[in-house]
Amino acid sequence: QVQLVESGGGLVQAGGSLRLSCAASGTTQSLHYMAWYRQVPGKQREQVATITSGTSANYAGAVKGRFTISRDGNKNTVYLQMNSLKAEDTAVYYCRSGTSYGIDYWGKGTLVTVSS
């Protein structure tokens, strides 16, 4: 089992920055990728950024150039550096991680509110 705990959300003005963290615990040696998703009430959860165990990163078009995903040296924590935040970035941000054989885990989310 793997537990994911997000932190770092909060209220920020448009144009500002936040850094989210997601700490993984448990059987983390099996994790192949880590990712950030976000969800606005009434809308589907959408993928924001992913990073694999080889540190290859991918981003949604809406955040490319503004957000950066990274992992720490022991690969148990993933970060999402969010710059130039916009009101439309307001959402609950979730951490997701999983194994190469299809088991996925989710955190409980952290709220990011960007005021315009």
Task: Give a structural overview.
This protein is mostly beta strands and 116 residues long. The chain is built from no helices and eleven strands. The model has no long low-confidence stretch (mean pLDDT 93).
Characteristics of this structure?
116 residues, mainly beta, seven-stranded mixed beta sheet, four-stranded antiparallel beta sheet, 0% helix
Brief characterization of the structure:
With 116 residues, the protein is mostly beta strands. The chain has strands at 2-7, 10-13, 18-26, 31-39, 46-52, 57-59, 67-71, 77-82, 91-99, 104-106, 110-115. Strand 7 and strand 8 (77-82) form a beta hairpin.
What is the element layout, followed by pairings?
Blueprint: E1 2-7, E2 10-13, E3 18-26, E4 31-39, E5 46-52, E6 57-59, E7 67-71, E8 77-82, E9 91-99, E10 104-106, E11 110-115
Parallel strand pairs: 2-11
Antiparallel strand pairs: 1-3, 3-8, 4-5, 4-9, 5-6, 7-8, 9-10, 9-11
Report strand %. Answer: over 45%
Shape: globular
The N- to C-terminal Cα distance equals: 40 Å
Indicate the multimeric state. single chain
Kindly name the structural category.
mainly beta
Rg, Cα atoms, Å:
13 Å
- How would you characterize the largest beta sheet? 7 strands, mixed
Order of helices and strands: EEEEEEEEEEE
Q: Work out the helicity level.
A: under 10%
Summed up, the helix count is 0
What is the count of β-strands? 11
Low-confidence stretches: none
- The average pLDDT value, as a whole number, equals 93
